[in-house]
Design a protein that fits this description.
With 303 residues, the chain is an alpha+beta fold. It has helices at residues 11-18, 21-24, 36-44, 92-107, 122-130, 141-144, 294-301, and strands spanning 2-5, 52-57, 63-73, 76-83, 112-118, 153-159, 169-170, 173-177, 179-182, 188-191, 204-208, 216-222, 227-233, 236-242, 245-251, 256-260, 265-270, 276-281, 290-291. The chain has a six-stranded mixed β-sheet with strand order 1-2-3-4-5-6, with helices on both faces. A six-stranded antiparallel β-sheet has the order 7-8-16-13-18-11, with no helix packed on it. β9 (179-182) and β10 (188-191) form a beta hairpin.
Length: 303
């Protein structure tokens, strides 16, 4: 998946989400009244000095949603994003948000980005809270004036220099930073050592590759096996569930790994084709250690 400028060919799929009540019911604005002409006019004016609206697309260039920086002035901007129903839960929202924020701070050199959602928009609030964005109360007056008369809003912000989506754990499993040594103009070398960086001996290493975008794998847990999971190339969404709850984390940095040292149901969603998932395991392959039925997993963890 990647960002690109909007094209007129995107208009039908843009209109699709505008007329999808499951997508727009909590959004401000009467999207259900929008027409194809409205979409085409929006695309024509999608790039200007004050506004940038980009398409979030799949590896096959299919339009999945729109991400925006609006009202760009005096070093700040407002963020907005909407994705089609078919793109929800597939990593497009987080990819689009991370990419546009990086553009805001690294390319446009902005100082701050703000956005708001209705407090009863449970899906949006869960998304931002999950990625460790926190509510702010000090919002510039010039921005608040644009929302006069609108109540029950929850505001978020990112400031220049902030690290967003920094995680220490996911579903109670430790997120580790693999030691990495950079070399100028020659890449990086990352390494870890058994019983030092990771808390177990390594008896098996395997990797999963050549997976198309959008494919889910995993769907199992282990009774005793401990593992370190990391992604040396590409982008993979890791979904974990155990007694601590159900959480997700994107693996897209070769120096970030997750240690699973308890019985944990896992699913892996390939956000980018040909991404590679590497696993270092504490024991040899044992079929009897697998739990492949979700109901059995729930019974096992409730003992």
């Amino acid at each position: 998946m990647y960002l690109r400028e909007l094209k007129q060919d995107d208009a039908p799929l843009m209109l699709e989400w505008m007329h999808d009540i499951s997508v727009v019911e909590k959004l401000r604005g009467n999207f259900l009244a929008k027409t194809m002409d409205d979409c085409q006019d929006f695309i024509i004016s999608s790039i200007s000095e004050r506004n940038i609206h980009l398409a979030i697309v799949s590896d096959t260039d299919e339009y999945m949603g729109t991400v925006s920086l609006k009202n760009i002035e005096d070093g700040s901007a407002e963020f907005a994003i909407t994705v089609r129903a078919v793109a929800m839960g597939r990593g497009y929202s987080w990819f689009g948000m991370e990419a546009i924020l990086n553009k805001a701070f690294n390319e446009l050199e902005l100082e701050s980005v703000y956005w708001c959602v209705a407090r009863d928009n449970d899906r949006a609030v869960r998304f931002y809270d999950k990625h460790n964005f926190h509510e702010v109360v000090e919002v510039p007056e010039k921005i608040l004036k644009r929302y006069n008369g609108i109540e029950n809003l929850k505001w978020y912000s990112v400031l220049k220099g902030d690290e967003f989506n920094v995680r220490e754990t996911v579903a109670g499993c430790k997120v580790i930073h693999i030691k990495t040594i950079p070399t100028i103009d020659a890449g990086e070398l990352s390494f870890f050592e058994a019983t030092r960086e990771i808390p177990f001996e390594i008896k098996r290493i395997y990797y999963i590759s050549k997976v198309p975008e959008g494919v889910r794998r995993g769907f199992h847990a282990h009774k005793e096996l401990k593992q370190l999971l990391f992604c040396p190339y590409g982008r993979i969404q890791l979904i974990l569930e155990n007694k601590s709850g159900r959480e997700e984390i994107e693996l897209s940095d070769p120096s970030i790994g997750v240690i699973i040292d308890q019985c944990t149901w896992r699913e892996m969603l390939w956000l980018q084709k040909d991404s590679v998932l590497c696993v270092a395991a504490s024991d040899y392959y044992k079929a009897e250690d697998y739990i492949r039925d979700y109901k059995e997993f729930r019974r096992f963890t409730e003992k």
